[in-house]
Design goal:
By secondary structure, this protein is an alpha+beta fold. The chain has a 4-stranded antiparallel beta sheet, with no helix packed on it. It has a two-stranded parallel ribbon with strand order 1-4.
């Protein structure tokens, strides 16, 4: 009876562990779950990342800035208009001049009459002539006063209400190279924004890969843990039956119970980890956190792992790494900034022109109506002396460019080291996977021998449990090694700058 129960128990244990039943959608509570491939997860992450959306807007900003810089080659046309009201008008004549013009005839007549009277005082015989002269002289005085009044009126300006407008254009001829330098600078800035976006995309992809493979790892471990727990539950049931038959001790039952409790705790931790991993993957993919998702490789019996070793390939990294491209572009940007600074201390020439209109105007005397005129000319600005300000600013800008060049050289060295390290990690992970597979083969053989020995009653239950635990550990290490190969290969491709390819 005892051998029959032991045989049934060990056969059930062996079959349940080696069969590795796949967790179904119903058993995991994900009956309507959405199955995602790694490629689809990457696409969703790139489409829904808020950080990448900011990077795309930054790229658009730099593109528009570059287009705006190109307009500096073209003439600028502006229109201005204004209105001013004052409480006083501009007077071209002072008060004494106005009085003199208004009374010019009267003053002249009075002066002539005084002269005539002086003559009559000496020559009384001419007194009748006074009557003849006085009338015409009065008429002449009145006429001359009118002419003076008209002159005063002609010089009167009503400038209390002044309206003016102008259309102006400016065409740069030579700005010391500033326009061309600024055009190139904004072009490099646009390329820099694109490289930053590329770097952010690769970081998002790597983060998504890590979440995806972590989910796959925990799913495989859950399947393993559930199978191991089911086996221990069956073994615990069989041992309890054997205890009731008197062919097993309570100590043996407690040993199995302890292992079963450990398996329960392991399953609980894996379940919690799966929930968190699914939420993280949903967050990265831009899906609601409670969306039931599954990775395509969760249900795979064996993961398809590329076990070919890699080489550093630093030449590819030095061409593709966005960080290095950013530093090279930054060096070009600082070089253009130095040219812009130098341009401020070089001669600058421009052609200007326009049409101006005003009311009142003085183009045909003083008139209270709109009239205007056009004009065209050249301007030239030549800095003469600035106490060496330009030289110091140019040297400071050149120093910034040199600093960037040194940073780029340092980055090349670090990238070379990083690529070498990542390639070593990939190869090391591959070697660990090969060792883990060999260990699993040995663990399978160990379990087979332990089953036979326990069946023949030559190996105690503790040895069988130890063999099963070692088999579980070996299988878990194989899963870790497979996922490690996936992750290290992704990190290696990111170090090469080819993760998106």
């Amino acid at each position: 009876m005892r051998h029959f129960i032991l045989l049934l128990s060990t056969l059930t244990l062996s079959l349940s562990l080696q069969a590795q039943p796949t967790a179904t959608a119903d058993s995991s509570g994900l009956a309507a779950s959405r199955v995602l491939t790694l490629k689809e997860c990457r696409r969703l992450a790139l489409e829904n990342s808020k950080g990448l959306a900011v990077g795309r807007l930054e790229k658009e900003i730099q593109h528009e800035t570059h287009l705006a810089a190109g307009t500096n080659y073209m003439p600028k046309v502006t229109a201005t208009a204004g209105y001013v009201h004052t409480n006083k008008s501009v007077s071209l004549l002072n008060r004494s001049q106005i009085t003199a013009f208004n009374t010019a005839g009267t003053n002249l007549a009075e002066g002539l009459l005084g002269t005539v009277q002086n003559i009559l005082a000496n020559y009384p015989d001419l007194a009748p002539l006074l009557g003849l002269v006085k009338g015409p002289l009065g008429n002449a005085a009145t006429a001359i006063d009118g002419v003076g009044h008209d002159i005063v009126k002609a010089f009167h300006t009503d400038t209390r209400n002044l309206a003016a407008g102008a259309i102006l254009f400016t065409q740069p001829l030579y700005m010391g190279g500033k326009i061309r330098a600024y055009d190139r600078l904004t072009h490099y800035t646009e390329l820099l924004a694109d490289e930053k976006l590329s770097q952010a995309e690769q970081e998002i992809i790597l983060e998504t890969d890590r979440a995806y493979w972590q989910l796959v790892s925990l799913s495989h471990k859950k399947r393993l843990a559930d199978s191991y727990r089911a086996t221990l539950q069956k073994l615990d049931s069989d041992v309890q039956a054997m205890i009731r038959e008197g062919v097993a001790t309570k100590a043996q039952g407690l040993q199995v119970a302890v292992k079963l409790n450990e398996a329960e705790m392991t399953c609980l931790k894996v379940d919690d980890g799966l929930v968190l991993c699914r939420m993280l993957l949903c967050q990265l993919c831009g899906l609601p956190l409670d969306t039931p998702v599954r990775a395509q490789e969760e249900d795979a019996g064996e993961l398809q792992v590329n076990t070919l070793e890699v080489s550093p390939q630093t030449d590819i990294a030095l061409v593709n790494r966005p960080e290095l491209n950013q530093l090279e572009l930054a060096g070009k940007i600082y070089a253009e900034k130095a040219k812009i600074v130098r341009a401020d201390f070089l001669p600058q020439a421009a052609m200007i022109g326009g049409y101006a209109i005003s009311n009142p105007n003085v183009y045909n005397g003083f008139q209270n109506k709109f009239a205007g005129a056009w004009a065209i000319g050249l301007t030239l600005k030549v800095p003469i002396w600035n106490w060496g300000e330009g030289r110091h600013k140019v040297r400071a800008a050149q120093a910034e460019a040199e600093m960037t060049a040194l940073r780029a050289e340092e980055a090349r060295e670090k990238i070379t080291l990083q690529v070498t390290q990542e390639s070593f990690r990939v190869n090391e992970a591959i070697r660990k996977l090969n060792l883990a597979r060999k260990n699993l083969e040995k663990a399978n053989e160990n379990v087979r021998i332990a089953d036979l020995g326990y069946r023949e009653d030559v190996i105690p239950l503790t040895d069988l449990l130890a063999a099963r635990t070692a088999w579980l550990q070996a299988h878990s290490e194989k899963i870790d090694a497979e996922i490690d190969v996936m992750l290290t290969r992704a990190a290696w491709r990111k170090a090469l700058g080819t993760l998106r390819e």
